[in-house]
Design a protein that fits this description.
This protein is an all-alpha fold. It is built from 19 helices and 4 strands.
Length: 275
């Protein structure tokens, strides 16, 4: 997360950094803010017609949670869709963690984020990592990756999380390592975001080729080589290859499960924290 925060500080006109707590506090305000950031502000007419309120209601946690598609079925054949929508409450960690545990985690986080472009205390308020921990803890309780797996006690899971032992790794180390490496050696490390690739895949195919030292020639561009690569590497094409429709990875995960939906939705960002 720190990578995105630093990118926002460096280029606020290109990177909009939002906090779940703020969205929960005033969703209408942030819907307007997102629209303005994307260069598509609401007109006076649209505001008078209540378009913002309609979007607010449509994208609300409660509405998404009660959609039939989110109440039934499984994601990749393993994860219940319903487990991605628990409470959606800010501060729910206080119902599970003691003040001593919260204080202990705050110290760990400040230590891990020392030297960032913002002080640890403010960074700590940005992402509510304790909420993230509780959400992911419940998520794993609801989804057993091993049939005979025994759930960890809360205290044990918390200690492991603080030590960096976590299913997806410590969040402060995950993206930050690549981001810092990119800032330090931009000619050696290319940092790409899925959202950017989705928005303009052709541009980024050219960018990757240049970064690798193999730029496309004018002739190749005229022949439509970039478009051919774009089609060849598209999720739809990869998803429909026979090798990706059958078989397993390490005898556990279906190859097909690595190819879900191509579409990104705003709510899926909060799903990453299993809210």
């Amino acid at each position: 997360m720190l990578g995105y925060w630093n990118a926002h500080l460096k280029n606020p006109e290109e990177v909009l950094f939002l906090k779940y707590e703020d969205l929960k506090g005033d969703i209408a305000f942030y819907i307007k803010k997102i629209a303005e950031f994307l260069g598509c502000p609401f007109s006076e007419d649209e505001e008078k017609q209540g378009l913002i309120e309609q979007i607010s209601k449509l994208c609300s946690f409660e509405n998404l949670k009660n959609l039939e598609v989110n109440k039934t079925g499984y994601r990749r054949g393993v994860l219940k869709n319903s487990t991605f929508f628990r409470k959606g409450e800010v501060g729910d960690w206080a119902n599970y963690l003691s003040p001593a545990m919260a204080e202990s985690f705050q110290k760990v986080m400040e230590s891990k984020l020392e030297g960032s472009e913002d002080d640890g205390e403010q960074v700590g308020g940005l992402w509510s990592p304790l909420d993230q921990f509780i959400s992911s803890y419940h998520f794993l309780l609801d989804n057993k990756f091993e049939k005979d797996a025994v759930p960890l006690e809360l205290d044990e899971a918390f200690d492991m999380f603080c030590e960096g032992i976590h299913s997806w790794g410590p969040f402060w180390d995950h993206i930050l390592g690549y981001w810092n490496a990119h800032l330090k050696n931009p000619e050696k490390v290319l940092f790409l975001k899925y959202e950017d690739l989705k928005e303009d895949i052709a541009f980024h195919i050219e960018k990757i080729a240049e970064f690798m030292g193999y730029p496309f020639s004018e002739e190749e561009l005229k022949q439509g080589l970039v478009d051919q690569i774009k089609k060849l590497c598209s999720l739809e094409n990869l998803k429909n290859l026979e090798v990706n429709k059958c078989g397993y990875v390490q005898g556990i995960m279906k190859n097909s499960s690595f190819f879900g939906k191509e579409k990104l939705e705003i709510d899926e960002l909060s799903n990453a924290c299993h809210g």
